[in-house]
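In response to reviewer comment 3 from the previous cycle, which asked for concrete evidence that the modeling workflow produces usable outputs, we include below a single protein chain processed end to end. The sequence was submitted unchanged, and the resulting structure tokens are shown without manual editing.
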Amino acid sequence: MPHTSPIAAWVLAHAHEVPGVPELMSGIAARLDARGMALLRTTLQLPMLHPEVSVRMWVWRRVVADFELREPSVIVSAEDAHAPHGVVQTVDLAHDAWHTAAFAASPIRRILVDGVDRILCKIDSASPGTGGAASDAPEYPILADLRRDGATGYLALPLRTASGRGACSFATTRVGGFCDEDVALLEDLLPVMALALERHAVRRVAHVLLQTYVGPHAGERVLQGRIRRGDVETLRAAIWFSDLRGFTALCAAHPSTEVVRWLNGYFERVSNAVHGHGGEILKFIGDAVLAVFPVTVDDDADACLRALAAAHDVNRDMDAWNAERAAVGEPAMHHGVGLHLGQALYGNIGGRTRLDFTVIGADVNLASRLEGLCALVGRRVVASEGVHARVPGRLTLLGTYPLKGVQEAVPAYGLA
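The workflow returned the following structure tokens.
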């Protein structure tokens, strides 16, 4: 059936022009307000395909206000976006949010989990209900918050999208709450809202998954169209290769579930350090990590210093972690880091049906060989002459060593 609502028609005609969901929500709120709906607050909640986030929630308010959640520990991130008609807060909720007491007492749970198709409440009469009818059920805690802010009515509806069942809610300050005509208009609006949100949600999911699996810079290149096999460029960078010591023996001596947990703990510490100093992890290879610190504005020294700072941070965090592990009887985790400054081919490499966005080249291999020296020389960080030359005074010569695949013996340096 064609949509006759002017607001639905506006969404269909213009939603593709707005840059994001906050602008879309603000535009819809302004048009509902012009119709006399007197909205106080609107929320959208969509499931997210994300390793850390279960639901992304957008909260529109007429006036700026701090976002308050009864379980603040489940907020992964939150940010404000000011629009011509109010403010929209974008809030990412962790997977644990589904198991909190606050969610269990929320009307949104009844929409998302129980499959209820409508929750309509007259807040000013303190008679919560479903489908507009009064109910003997306890009042949802959110209603007391909304009543305090002057709301008179609350409506929650499901939002069906290709990515899963979401939910939306509306609160009004108009005397008497939402009337039947309001409910019909909003229910008529939902399918086109879902269609508009899908466009933004699909790109967001693609962006998140690419960032998660190939890294932020590589992911952005893929989104920009750098997807052809063999589409590579030369990258100058400080190249990082790290590896855990004795990982094979660790796997043999402990349950695999424990080993995976420990491996994730190691990768988390490396990731925090590398990303914290402007590097990018390109891949995890078993228990090894390949990362780059790209040279910017022809400043080799800056890239080398950032890589060394990341190595220092990982070593510090590993020491603290091993102290915690010893206290509970877990084995220590030791690693080595090889650092080299050089050139690499950076881009799409692989087969016709399976590509990898990575770096290859002799300089990448050298970083890996330097890491292999760590156990031999008893150091956690071994760097090349190229790194040493850019950061005088930071490294000390350990000796000259033959390396597999390298014609001549190479000098190796450790932290001074």
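Residues 180-214 form the longest helix (35 residues). We consider this sufficient to address the reviewer's concern, and the full set will be provided in the supplementary archive.
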